[in-house]
Amino acid sequence: MARSQTRMVGGIKVYVPTGAIETAVHALAPRLRALRGARIGILDNHKEFADIVLRGVANTLAREQSVQVTVWRKDYLGKPSPFAREMAASCDAVINGVGH
Known about the structure:
Strand order of the largest sheet: 4-3-5
Radius of gyration: 18 Å
Order of helices and strands: EEEHEHE
Number of helices: 2
Low-confidence stretches: none
């Protein structure tokens, strides 16, 4: 893990999140050929206003593309998603809301 770095800014000690990124590289999932009839997961991770935007996206996809929408509203606070395998098994694609 990268060592913490701090700097003084206006007399306040501020954490500077720089350093080596320690994440494995993964290939992107293949693009869906079509949305119509797909199983789409909506992942709301409780960011402010994400639920409003995601509800609109879910309603539009269901109405206009006849997708089967499953909404996942989970807390995992910055750690890897503990339910990613469950979502992958039941969804063709997942939309994640991150708020503003």
